[in-house]
Amino acid sequence: MKKLWIALGMLAVAALMLWGFNQAIYVAPTEATMGDVQRIFYYHVPNAMLSFLFFAISFVASILFLAWRNTAPARAQAADAWALASAEVGVVFCSVVLITGPLWARPVWGIWWTWDARLTTTLLLWLIYVSYLLLRRFVEGAQMQTLAAVVSVFGALDVPIVYMANRWWRTQHPAPVFGGGPDSGIKDPTMLAAFGWNLLAWAVWGLMLLAFRVHVERRNQQIQHKASQAALAGR
Amino acid sequence: MTETEHGPSQPLSQPPSTSSGQLPPLSAPTPVAQLDDLSRLFGSFAALRRIQYTFLPGKCYVLLGENGAGKSTLLRILAGLLPPSHGTITLFGSFTPAQACGRIGYMSHAPMLYDELTGVENLAYFAALYPRSQTLSPELALQQVGLDPALPRKVGQYSQGMRQRASLARVLMAQPDLLLLDEPFSNMDIQSAHQMVALLDKLRQPGRTVVLTTHQRELALPIADCMLTLHAGQIVSEGSAHRS
Amino acid sequence: MAVAIAPPEEPGWFHLVGIHLRKDLRIEWRSREAIHSMIFFALLVVVLFSMAFDPTAAASREIAGGVLCVATLFASVSALNQAWSREIRHDVLDALRMTPADRSAIFVAKVLANFLFVTVVQALLAPVFFIFYNLRPLGNGWLLLAIVPLGTWALVANGTFFAALSIRSRNRELLLPLILFPIFLPALLAMVLAVKTILTGDGSDPHLLWLKMLAGYDIIFMTVSLLLFDTVLHAE
């Protein structure tokens, strides 16, 4: 029964993604100055927003792990699973952002890449979380989780600093579409609808991925726990 | 830090009138270390399994067992260098190993001294990290283990036996109540090993507990009060040894 | 080896830092491993970049800041990788972990020692650098004396912390740059731009924003390092 619901949920997510694709590619009108390449926006922006969300989850989970690791080991293990899973999903989403961004920038700006506030911040986030995932592979044993959580805290501290630095420095990225100024916001309702559907579709998809990954990691932890119980029992 | 007077052991020790003042009181004295259901895992390898044991003050415990039996792991947990995976460890009645670290001396296979400094320089450095009233002077500590404090040689140029003794001096300098020695006779010729045993015997003090691991049962026999054998992470036998 | 002035019963925190620092400097003075390897390494980087770009005076002002910082970065990593090697070699670190004194002093002293080593290297390298790149700062040259130490501190403090963190990994020397570089990135950015502003004298940074950012970065990361050092040291 449970499996059926999971399968139905996955189907629903797939349908939602298809619907979002249809909205972005066929329904939304072609943008006046940029042309069809603007349609990348419907993927680029939701992915960017969600990758920030996943990295934020990972950061909070890392802090919780550090707080609980001595007092509540069971809860700390859950926090660690969330930290790992959301870092991985975040890196996937962030990679999409870093790939779609230059694809859009090349025809519109005439260059693939520039050291602008949001570009630099996004790349830095990606680098930090890749190094976080590398650390988790490099170190063995129980101390790995603690060290990874420490690196996660350091990495999260970097983000606001580099973001502010780049705002002072130079910015080429389009002004924020939402909340950027009096002229911001999407005027065309079909464009807004396409954006909304895609944001929803990617969010549901990302959260599903996260839920699966957390589940797998918790299973891993259970297996390790069983193995250690068996080892304690002596067989 | 060092108020061992408090606790129930003092008032309780009065009623059973023991004839000899030499003997410890019959009532249970505050244990030096209490291991409760203590386990340590490395991945899925259990180095220690559900150990239940109490170390009493003033005794010399000798841990025997083959390689991988968990002897070193047990010492590192007692030293507070390694947290247990399960179970608890209580030192001196009510402290965690981290809280009691100033009262524990630990000597591992490695000398735990800087190669580039002389013996006295090493010891002076470590002495500065302990409360001043607690420590012996570096010179005195070196003399106790039979090393010349004026020796200008760096520890890196010491022989193995000298390094072990310098390491012991580092430990003794802080005047620990609990002395943990991991293989103190390893890599030593038989003569140095016997000297080490004699030294350890000489340095025993009332109230100082010694826990040492070794492969060489016969060597440790003269100083052992209690022989513990570890096998596959558990204490499989406990026997008192008569001091000769 | 007479006992000098009688220290207080419980050594104070600054006194402790002094004890650790004196020990670190004495050991480095006897071996001079870190300094020698760093000097040569940094010199190589400066020469290599100079050859690769064949800078003219105008262009060199643009890139020299970057070269200086990257040379410092690479040279420091070779030393930072060895920052705790003497403590690891004979389990000295275990003995230090068992002392009742505040362990954050060990970290601060290590940072100070490495900071001194890197600063000495920079001081020796500066003339070479200015000759190879035909430099004459057009802006406030003396500001370099604030920017370079602040940037170096950011590098060395983080580097020492992550070197301690990598102690327990399999590929210790590989892991350090992998973690350090991304996290050091904001400081590198600020340092490079601040140096460039001074060398080119373009007046693009009248409020010394980069200098303030470097100082802020140093304060934030030093605080967090101090708070988390014991956690990293005892992670086992």
Distance between the termini of chain B: 35 Å
Largest sheet features of chain C? none
Protein structure class of chain B: alpha/beta
CATH architecture heading of chain B: 3-Layer(aba) Sandwich
Mean pLDDT of chain C comes to 85
Element order of chain C: H for helix, E for strand: HHHHHHHHH
Low-confidence stretches of chain B: 1-22
Helix content of chain C: over 70%
CATH first level of chain B: Alpha Beta
Fraction in beta strands of chain C: under 5%
Shape of chain B: globular
Number of strands of chain C: 0
Number of alpha- plus pi-helical segments of chain C = 9
What is the helical fraction of chain B, as a range of percent?
10-25%
Task: Assign an overall shape of chain C.
Answer: globular
Report the C-alpha radius of gyration of chain C, rounded. 19 Å
Notable features of this structure?
heterotrimer, A: 235 residues, mainly alpha, 6 helices, 79% helix, flat, B: 244 residues, alpha/beta, Rossmann fold, 6-stranded mixed β-sheet, 3-stranded antiparallel β-sheet, 7 helices
Summarize the structure.
The longest helix of chain A has 45 residues. Chain A is 79% helix and 0% strand. Chain A is built from six helices and no strands.
Question: How would you characterize the overall build of this protein?
Answer:
The complex is a heterotrimer of chains A (235), B (244) and C (236). With 235 residues, chain A is mostly helical. Chain A has 6 helices and no strands. Chain A has helices spanning 2-27, 41-68, 73-109, 117-138, 143-169, 189-233. A 6-stranded mixed β-sheet of chain B has the order 5-6-7-3-8-9, sandwiched between helices. Chain B has a 3-stranded antiparallel β-sheet with strand order 2-1-4, covered by helices on one side. Chain B has helices at 9-12, 71-78, 119-127, 138-144, 160-173, 190-202, 217-220; strands at residues 33-42, 45-55, 60-64, 86-91, 104-107, 178-182, 209-213, 226-231, 234-240. Chain B contains 7 helices and 9 strands. The longest helix of chain B has 14 residues, at 160-173. With 236 residues, chain C is mainly alpha-helical. Chain C has 9 helices and no strands. In chain C, helix 3 runs parallel beside helix 7, helix 7 (144-166) runs antiparallel to helix 8 and helix 8 packs antiparallel against helix 9 (209-233). The two termini of chain C are 37 Å apart. Chains in contact: A-B, A-C, B-C. Chains B and C meet through helix 3 of B and helix 1 and helix 5 of C.
